[in-house]
Design brief:
With 155 residues, the chain is of the alpha/beta class. 41% of the residues lie in helices and 19% in strands. The protein contains 4 helices and 5 strands; from the N terminus they run βββαβαβαα.
């Protein structure tokens, strides 16, 4: 199986975090946060911004069977603590389907429970200001989601 790259999306109402990783190193790295509100233009503004970021991070989506065709997206799904899908999880899943249609890439879903808290914990003693932490939190949460996904991949 050829190496795969993954771009992870931590969908947020105001900011969306992005992280990159691959199937070889199995390490997730925070990339950036984009500030496009989810509600703007029915989600279309964020879809367009994400499609641009996908192309920047992974390149154009080649035809099936071509090099890079296996690069995929991972979207965080905020499951309830009892593993059920609440309104936010259903909305994130639906958004992931729209993103798959737009980009032509497979979108995998990954449980994102407590990843923002994990990002906050990691920055607790960083010496960053509140605004600096806010700017990094979403990308760190995306990296935590992606790391969970990569850790579950078969060897």
């Amino acid at each position: 199986m050829p190496p795969m790259r993954y771009l992870c999306i931590d969908l947020g109402d105001k900011r969306t975090g992005l992280a990159l990783g691959d199937s070889v190193l199995r390490l997730a790295s925070p990339l950036k946060a984009i500030e496009v509100p989810l509600a703007e233009d029915g989600g279309n503004a964020l879809l367009r911004a994400l499609a641009k970021e996908v192309t920047l991070a992974l390149g154009d989506c080649p035809a099936p069977g071509k090099v890079g065709a296996s690069d995929e997206l991972v979207i965080g799904i905020p499951l309830n603590m009892d593993d059920t899908l609440g309104p936010k999880a259903k909305a994130a899943s639906a958004f992931g389907k729209r993103l798959a249609q737009l980009t032509g890439r497979i979108v995998r879903e990954q449980d994102e429970r407590l990843t923002t808290a994990d990002a906050d914990w990691k920055m607790q003693r960083s010496g960053l200001t509140r605004d600096q932490k806010k700017a990094r939190r979403d990308a760190l949460a995306a990296a935590a989601i992606l790391q969970d996904f990569l850790d579950q991949l078969p060897r």
